[in-house]
Amino acid sequence: MKKVVLFSFLLLSFYSQSQTYVKGNAVTALALVPNIGIETSIGKKSTFQFDALASFWSSIKGKPYEFYTFTTEYRYHFHEKFNGFYAGANAGFDSYNLTKWNYIDIGVHQIGVGYTLGATIGYEKKINKRLMLDFFIGGGNHQGFYHSYYIETGKRFELDHAKGRNKSGEWIPYRGGLMISYRLN
How far apart, in Å, are the Cα atoms of 69 and each of 13, 96, 173? Predict the structure, then answer.
């Protein structure tokens, strides 16, 4: 309960003291994968963003593709906040049940969790007092911890000999799109 009160207080403080935008990614929405976020001012040229990306697809062509990603990001704006070019550093957490690219042809999927550390570059363009567009792309390192299972039977993949969870790390692009943003205050 204390955490809920503290989080509510911090959110209310951000909202009452600074510009805050709620956002939706138009590019991922076209694939029916919602990506929503909130960005708020924390300094003269700095903002903080939190966003969530979710794929609710339990199957695409018979292969699972369900994941949930939560990302926090610090952004430094070169000109002025919420207008022009920016660079950001991000960290995130994900949970997934999907078929990794190198397992597509063998009928195996992975269930696991992971984290990301990376960077983003982008450009924000104000349309009017309330609306803004945010074009961005980002990526970095993803570390995953998972088990592999056969799609048909649900049994553990026989070449999966890891004690505990399998581990893998990749340098990948994992963020991007066009956020349509609405100013709350």
Answer: 25, 9, 14
Report which DSSP code applies to 43. S
**For 39-72, b where at least 16 C-beta lie within 10 A, e where not — what string?**
bbbeeeeebbbebebbbebeeeeeebbbbebebe
Q: What is the mean pLDDT of residues 168-180?
A: 95
pTM value is 0.84
Phi, then psi, of 153 in degrees rounded to 5? -105, -20
Q: How many helices (H) and strands (E) does the chain have?
A: 2, 8
User: What is the rounded distance in angstroms from the CA atom of residue 14 to the CA atom of residue 118?
Assistant: 24
Q: Does the pLDDT value for residue 104 go beyond 90? A: no
Assess whether pLDDT exceeds 60 at residue 74: yes
Pick from 46, 143, 25, 135: nearest CA to 88:
46
